Amino acid sequence: MIRPSITEKNKIEKLSRLPQGGSCKAGVLIEKNAGWRNKCPVYNPDKCTGCYQCYMYCPDGVISKEGKGISIDYDFCKGCGICEKICKLQAIVMEGET
Amino acid sequence: MIAERVTAQNISDNEFFYGHKACGGCGGSLAVRMALKVLGERTLLTLPAGCMSAVSFNYPQMSYANNAIISAFAGTGAVMSGLKAGAEAMGLKDYHVLGIAGDGGTADIGLQALSGLIDRNDDAIYICYDNEAYMNTGIQKSGLTPYGSTTTTTPAGSKGKGNIKQKKNLFEIVAAHGIPYAATASVGYIEDFATKVKRASQIKGTSFIHVLAPCPTGWGIDTSETIEVAKEVVDTGLWYLAEFYDGEYHLNRHPKVFSDVTHYIRRQGRFQHLKDEDIDIIIRSRDKTWKRIEGFKE
Ligand SMILES: Cc1ncc(C[n+]2csc(CCOP(=O)(O)OP(=O)(O)O)c2C)c(N)n1
Ligand code: SF4
Ligand code: SF4
Ligand code: SF4
Ligand SMILES: [Mg+2]
Question: Could you say which of A10, A61, A64 has the minimum Cβ distance to residue B60?
Fold first, then answer.
């Protein structure tokens, strides 16, 4: 599966790491979005039927298929709450961020 | 029409738009994510100024995992032709040329470049994500802002009731070029949109998709409401799902009864100032549109 993830080595610590010219490497992440979250989607696999609708509608693409259910990449989930509304079985419930 | 339906079961697991800085619940970012999942890694993408480039090219945080370049605001269609010519000159095989621009970037400043692209009929896919205003610069009215919406350039207040113009009919402007494939979509019906992207990718020549994409920040809705609202705009008949190919219009979805327009309007901050008579104007304009599109094939 292709999906960008955080890579320390892409931090720019010295000038020589800056790209020359107008182009640079694609799919490079150096910081998370987790700090944006006020609410957190909590997943209950026992209620999940694996319809993958939450996966389809997550604007950030942080839900992925895992076995018969899903998993959430909390490094990049913004806590928008769309997945909770999409899931008809309450297998995802938004809870206050701790 | 060709192309099997794209579904949650058969769509690729890959993510090419990741770790971006769009607001939580951004409809435009969902449209971009889906389009790239359908088209894949060998997609040469260009985007003009607008939210979907601003949230993703924050060097060194580059949220597109495929080849992507920012164009001048007016130039999406022209850069797409350039990408196509470059790819041909390099002898590339098995790739897609994609342009993704906002409503302002498409229906206003980029309209002539889009028109030129369609006229040249270059083999490329143009997607307009429509959040109904110039969002990236702080919510100014565009040619696709709906009637009644308050924006910073059409402010509601003692002297005004928000935007007094109707949305430009972009889908039919594009179809009037005799384009091989054009479609409307909504992020509220995501499999329909993804399937249209697939169809567009199988067409020889230019194809165009106009996808409605709510913006919680500009529309005054909760971040969790984006999809509900994007479904509701279709169910109320204020937006319709259609395609144009072989020189003919096709209606994809004809709600037997429309859902309540007042409910759709009242839940959004941008329409808070509207009176019942303003909502009547919106309903009358919807009915006029549906009279006109009755001629579309079903
Ligand atoms: C020639 C030019 N004029 C104005 C701008 C400023 N500008 C940058 S993004 C933007 C708004 C884009 O609106 P839209 O195309 O609807 O995309 P959105 O931001 O809503 O996603 C504007 C006006 C610019 N970058 N270039
Ligand atoms: S929408 Fe609910 S039931 Fe369906 S995959 Fe997601 S969590 Fe499971
Ligand atoms: S809260 Fe929003 S960003 Fe987080 S997993 Fe759910 S839909 Fe995705
Ligand atoms: S302002 Fe609107 S369109 Fe722009 S990133 Fe935020 S939600 Fe998306
Ligand atoms: Mg816009």
Answer: A10
CATH of the domain at A66: 3.30.70.20
Question: b/e string for B21-41 if b means 16 or more Cβ within 10 A?
Answer: bbbbbbbbbbbbbbbbbbbbe
Structural domain contains residue A9:
no
Does the pLDDT value for residue A66 go beyond 70? yes
Protein residue whose Cα sits closest to atom 9 of ligand 1: B50
**Per-10-residue mean pLDDT, chain B, length 298:** 87 98 98 98 98 95 97 98 98 98 98 98 99 98 98 94 97 98 98 98 98 98 98 98 98 95 98 97 98 92
Quick one: angle between helices B76-89 and B111-120, nearest 10? 40
CATH homologous superfamily, domain B27-293: Thiamin diphosphate (ThDP)-binding fold, Pyr/PP domains (3.40.50.970)
Contact A2 B20 (CB under 8 A): no
B208 touches chain A (CB under 8 A): no
C-alpha–C-alpha distance, residues B82 and B122, integer Å: 10
Which candidate, B37, B1, B25, B12, places its Cα nearest to that of B203? B1
- Which ligand is nearest the CA of B49, by number? 1
pLDDT of residue B159: 86
Q: Which residue of A lies nearest to B34 if distances are taken between CA atoms?
A: A56
pTM beyond cutoff 0.90 = yes
* 0.95 surpassed by complex ipTM: yes
Whether chain B has a CB inside 8 Å of the CB on A45: the answer is: no
Q: Which atom of ligand 1 is nearest to the CA of B136?
A: 19
